[in-house]
Amino acid sequence: MLARLIEFSVRQRAIVLLAAAVLVAVGTWSAVHLPMDAVPDITNVQVQVNTAVPALAPEEIEQQVTFPLENRLSGLPGVVEFRSLSKVGLSQVTMTFADGAEIYRARQLVSERLQAAAEDLPPGLTPRLSPIATGLGEIFYYTLEYAPDARDRPAPRREQLMELRLLHESIVKPALRRTSGIAEVNTSGGYEKQIVVQPDPARLLETGLTLAAFAGRISENMRNAGGGFVEIGAEQVVIRVTGRATTAEEIGALPLKFTGAVQPLLVRDVASVGIGAGFRTGTATVDGREALVC
Hints:
By secondary structure, the protein is of the alpha+beta class. 37% of the residues lie in helices and 23% in strands. Strands 2-3-1-4 form a 4-stranded antiparallel sheet. Strands 5-14 form a two-stranded antiparallel sheet. A two-stranded antiparallel sheet has the order 6-11.
């Protein structure tokens, strides 16, 4: 057999050289287009459900959030592993599907079950699916900073971080999320810019207002309303009430109650209203300096 193969190769040199050339060309093309990775992604098909629970202890999160979600999500077709985690501020349920399962179909099945699970959870909690990403996915870190010659840069570092975060959330993050292959854009550090209303407990007590009533009066003035339309001849005039306060000054001028005096009791009479930042649970630094890391 070997002798015949050698004889054929010697007699049909053109065919052998052509086959060798084809093999070299195919091998070169395969080497160029072969996806190479130092750490191949071997993660199985997973769907993760995260629920932010800010006001409960881990034991209560397990009983009131994680356990009801487990009951609703159990029995999904194709699930081979089911595990959960309950810790301060977070309930996490992870489902592993069989190899070869289609990730989008798996997420669709979980989403349908989550719609029914909402009625079993405490009010105000919203379970969310994690992005389609794995623990071995590439992570790119970057910082957002003012240019050295920026003219409108605030002097205090706190205000700089507040403006940088607002710029990132409103412009940079939406642009990045439209990029192909981006699963999620997360932000660390900085301050979330907010209008902060700080009530004075002594003044509330003097005026007979509770904290819940005070917050309710403010929320009532944070909505716009539509009133339909009125037909005038051949035209329709849309009726709309613009009642949403948008600045700290407008919030401070909101009336709380009428006590028979000439002027009503306003928000600024019992509370301080100004620009501030929301509560945060961590920070980020670059070269020993607080910064906005994304």
